[in-house]
Amino acid sequence: MATKNQSTGLYRIMDFSRVVQIFERQELYFANPSTWDDPYEQLIRHSKDHALFGQCWSRTHTSDALWRIYSKDGMGVRISTTEERFRQVIRSGIKDKNYNYRLRKVEYVSQTRLNEKAEKVAESLNDFFVIGEAVDMLYMKREAFSHENEWRATLFCPEEVRADGKKGITIPVDPHRFIQSIVLDPRAPDELVDAFIFYFKLKLGFVGPIFRSVLYRKPEGFEVDGEVFSIEDL
Question: What is the percent of the chain where pLDDT is above 70?
Fold first, then answer.
């Protein structure tokens, strides 16, 4: 459990170009759930779903599955921050706006339970609409996605107009204070690693740790010299 002096670590794998944009534009992008792949993110459609925007992170430090999903061409970059830093960025970014936010871990449940929960929430919202209860559904996903070990930030922007069809919003961020470290795809070739490190350090001025993931580093291994063997227990 994270203490006051040990905030929860959060990790996100993104394409190299999108991480560069964070540094160059000094902003974080939050997407409307309608743009996400999982159709269950919109299991409940309501009058304010156009005014919700989210960003997804993981609590998992190292994951073969996440590298393969979010860095299919080896161009992925994993940035890290903490819950505390993320919360500070959100609060600072929305302080002059009429926004509300939530930053919390996602719960993984069976599809049956998710459907049952959605039905109850829909009935409740039809009786009396509460935006917090609607947002609750964005923090419950099917067990098939449990490898994500997700923490999600959600912004509610009540002044957004549905007719605008906005797919996302941004809030300002100082990337050099927000991002703690940068890890490159474990499958990235040496020349790509060198180029990325050069760009982040010398072009963007990032001073934090940056290196290639050691997930696929070949271990030294062990030598066995014995020649006598038995197959009795094979």
Answer: 94
What does the alpha-carbon distance between residue 53 and residue 45 come to, in Å, rounded to a whole number?
A: 14
Average pLDDT, the chain: 94
For residue 203, give the DSSP letter.
I
DSSP code string of 8-76: PEEEEEEEHHHHHHHHHHTEEEEE-GGGSS-GGGGSS--TTGGGEEEEEEES-S--HHHHHHH-TTS-E
State whether the Cα torsion 140-141-143-145 is positive or negative.
Answer: negative
Listed residue (35, 34, 37, 31) closest to 54, CA to CA: 31
> What is each CA distance from 213 to 64, 150, 158, in whole angstroms?
11, 20, 41
Give the list of residues 6+ apart from residue 124 with CB closer than 8 angstroms, or none. Answer: 130, 133
Task: Identify the band that residue 21 occupies on the pLDDT scale cut at 50, 70 and 90.
Answer: very high
Between CA 94 and CA 75 the distance in angstroms is: 31
Provide the b/e sequence for 73-95 (b: ≥16 CB within 10 Å): eebbbbbbbbbebbeebbeebbe
pLDDT of 221 above 60 = yes
pLDDT tens for residues 62-89?
Answer: 999 999 999 988 999 999 999 999 999 9
Say which residue the tokens 């930030």 belong to: 153
